[in-house]
Automatic annotation (TrEMBL):
Single annotated GO MF: peroxidase activity
Entry superkingdom: Bacteria
Organism taxonomic ancestry: Bacteria, Pseudomonadati, Pseudomonadota, Gammaproteobacteria, Pseudomonadales
Protein name per the record: Glutathione peroxidase
Key words of the record: Oxidoreductase, Peroxidase
CDD domains: GSH_Peroxidase
GO biological process, one term: cellular response to oxidative stress
Similarity comment text for this entry: Belongs to the glutathione peroxidase family.
Active site as annotated: 36
Length: 160
């Protein structure tokens, strides 16, 4: 099992979210926030999740409050916001630190020293496309929208 799939995240609302559950999927890992100018990307992320889920794809949302305090809510508030406003059905973890000394091991793997796409996460809605074998295939900036042709092409290629 890959290092990615060995990770266990806090679940949104308690419990654990094992990334082993994503071993048979191409996964788009996105740090998300409810009060960001980019928050409307939730709609496009849900559309991607719905469009490609049957082909072995999943979005994984990672709430993070490190960027201007734009995800201040509790787990219940995050879930309610995402469900009511965007119909989010893709998995969400509990809040994680994506940068700094408390950076979660997931983000050390995705963007830390020795990663294929190293460097601090620049803002909410930065995206990492992860292969079924746990390799990081691509990294996309927060401003890359879910319907961006480059992102769609990367997903299609990974699923091919």
């Amino acid at each position: 099992m890959s290092a990615f799939h060995q990770l266990v995240l806090p679940g949104l609302g308690g419990g654990e979210l094992s990334l082993a559950e994503f071993g048979d999927r191409i996964t788009l890992v996105v740090n998300v926030a409810s009060q960001c100018g980019l928050t409307p990307q939730y709609a496009g992320l849900e559309q991607l999740h719905q469009q490609y889920h049957g082909r072995g794809f999943s979005v994984l949302g990672i709430p993070c409050n490190q960027f201007a305090g734009q995800e201040p809510g509790s787990d219940d508030e995050i879930r309610t916001f995402c469900t009511l406003n965007y119909g989010v059905s893709f998995p969400l973890s509990g809040k994680l630190e994506v940068n700094g000394p408390q950076r979660h091991p997931l983000y050390r793997l995705l963007a830390g020293e020795g990663a294929d796409f190293p460097g601090d996460i620049t803002w909410n809605f930065e995206k990492f496309l992860v292969a079924m074998d746990g390799r990081v295939l691509a990294r996309f900036s927060p401003r890359t929208t879910p319907d961006d042709p480059a992102l769609i092409q990367a997903i299609e290629s990974a699923l091919a």
